[in-house]
Amino acid sequence: MPVIAPLSREHDRAGFDCGVPELNVFLKATARQHGEKGISRTFVLTEEDTRILGFFTLTLGEIQVDRLPAGYVKKYPAHGLPAVRLGRLAVSRRHQGKGYGELLLAEAIHRTIIIADHAGLIGLFVDAKDDNAKSFYERYGFMPLPSHPLHLFLPIATLRTADGRSNS
Ligand SMILES: CC(C)(COP(=O)(O)OP(=O)(O)OC[C@H]1O[C@@H](n2cnc3c(N)ncnc32)[C@H](O)[C@@H]1OP(=O)(O)O)[C@@H](O)C(=O)NCCC(=O)NCCS
User: How many CB atoms lie within 10 A of CB 138?
Assistant: First the structure.
């Protein structure tokens, strides 16, 4: 049964390959250090052993109201607004297409809701690395920001609906 847990020293990072060198290197060389320094938190998916099948990274951020899609600009005061950023999401090449990406995204959304309930935030942001990644995120309601077609936003109301669905 798949388990998603915070990245720890016990996890086997060495064999992970999602096909994107930059994401592999981040998991192997940076994710734990960033976790310890409080820069971000990485969560990994494993199944029957310590091999990592996929991971995602969350970090806190701030978004300027004028970067939001037009319909949202009027809803908020004109200053920096609290947000969570999905810094990275990847599934090992051998395990892509089995639903693990969706499972990891559902967990990222769930953890974002917990942060929202304790501190408040307006949504989850992600910079998709290309159009392929963008179309994955758009399936779940992410919408492009006017500033850049690959910069995407999932508003808090959509997050809550998605989290309710995956927990029911
Ligand atoms: C993008 C990625 C995370 C998707 O993970 P995955 O485990 O292969 O995806 P899943 O099996 O959970 O797919 C869930 C659904 O999304 C669909 N999907 C998967 N990748 C998709 C894509 N690029 N575009 C559109 N839909 C996609 C699947 O067909 C599936 O739909 P279905 O349930 O109707 O069959 C994975 O391919 C990956 O790690 N790619 C390399 C790294 C990367 O691009 N990360 C994005 C960070 S910017």
Answer: 14
